[in-house]
Each structure stands twice: as C-alpha cells, then as structure tokens.
Amino acid sequence: MPRLRPTPPAPVAAPRPPGRGPAARWLAGALLVGLLGAGVFYARHTGQLNRYARRAWATLTRGGLTGRERTPLLAGFSVHGIDVSAYQGRIDWPEVARHAVRFAFIKASEGASLRDPRFAHNWRAARAAGICRGAYHYFRPDRSGEEQARLFIQTVPLAPGDLPPVLDVEAAQFHDVAVMRREVATWLRLVEAHYGVTPILYSNHGFYRRHLAGHFDGYPLWLAHYEVDRPALPASKWIIWQHSDEAYVPGIRGAVDFNVFQGSYAALLALRVPAAPAAKPAGR
Hints:
The chain crosses the membrane at residues 23-43. The protein is α/β, with parallel strands linked by helices. Helices cover 34% and strands 18% of the residues. An 8-stranded mixed barrel has the order 1-2-4-5-6-7-8-9, surrounded by 5 helices.
C-alpha cells in the first residue's frame, strides 16, 4: 500500500495594513482646512500679528532695556510727542525733552473711579521739563459720561498754557452704540463747559470709522493708525496721528506711544487753554 505524503499547509497571506477609516480621513481634512485658514488669516493680518508679537517680545525683554533706546522720528513732520501712563513707570522728563519731544499727553483717569497713580508726578515733571502737556481720560462705556467727566475734572488742574483735555474712546464693551455716543457727548460737553476749551477726541481708526465718524465732527481728532504710511482718513479730519505704540524715547524704559502733530509748533501752541481775560476795573 503506497505511503501518503502529508499535504503542506496553504501559505498564510500577510496581514494587510488597516485602511484609513472615516474618522482618520475627517481629521486629516480638518487639519488641512485649518492650516489653509491660518495661512489666509496670517496673510490678511500680517502687520497686526507681527506687531503683537513684537510687543510681546518687548514686554518679556523689558528688564534688559536701559532707557536709552531711541526710535527714529517720523519723517515729514516737525512736531513730535508721546502719551504716557503709569505703565511707563518712572520717566526722566528732562531726558525726554532733550530728544525732540515737544508735547505729551498724560493719563489722568479712567471710568468713574480710577485715577492714574503717576499722573500728579508726570503732570508736574513734564511742565518743569518744558514739554507742552495735556491730560486724557480713558472712557468706559459702562459708566455714565457725567460720572466720568466729574472724575476727570476733580483730577486734572488744567491751567492756561496746557493742551486741551482728551477723551480716549476705544473700549468696545457696549450694548447700544447710540447710548455710548450719548455718554461720550455728555463728557465732551461738561468738560468743555468747565475748562472753557474744546476737548480733543482720541480713537483708533477701526473704532472711529465704525462707531464715531460723522457724530463728533466738531471736535479735533487724534487718530491712532499703525502700520501705514499715512492715516486712511483725509488730513482734514485729524490733527494728531499716533503712528506707533512701540517706540522708544531716551528717558523711558520700555515702549511708548509716538505721535505727530499735523502742523507747526506755533499751531500746536494755539490750541492751548487760553489765559483768563483780565478783570475790568470797577465802574468802567
């Protein structure tokens, strides 16, 4: 009887790699869309994002600054100025004055209760250094214009020779733009009545264009607009341009806002609070 040879086992096929399931494909597609969206967003907002990155880096490295750093003055303008608050810390005002800073606006108050802790010192020291000084209030839309005007008036002893008071309007936390405008108008009216000089309205380009344009044309405009060669608004619309919020001036350790006045120094001085008229002698 013939011997039967054992049948060799059939070869086992190598396992096939698992295919991508729906979840994996969805995740890859979402990642691709996200990357494309981020690229488009960066391309549209390159200047702003780079500015934020520079400011973050400047904040992190502030401890290594000496207070002697200097940003070149903006060409095409002859009258340069800064605006400061307690954020700038201790300021060497005589040193600032030696570097072509002709005017300075100093934060005095915010909302209905906050006074800048360095206002009184900066107010006196700027004038002693020969810098034309002014004061500003940061407007909070959740408090009434009357309350905020009262705080500013109680804080700022404007005198003849000082620049007009400034209202900084840029906080977007409001529910009704008409109410916000009404309270801004109240502040401007009360402060003008108290000091006898027309206040200056400050805002950034985007906020002004969306919420304020056409409503306060009777007030001089101080416009913040960065990363541009010139403000987008016509020159007839503004008198001061804040062209940078990351400038350096010897005498200040860290970044400070840089401004230019549109006009001559004599024109700037013409804006100042006038001297009170001399009293007439009795009987005349």
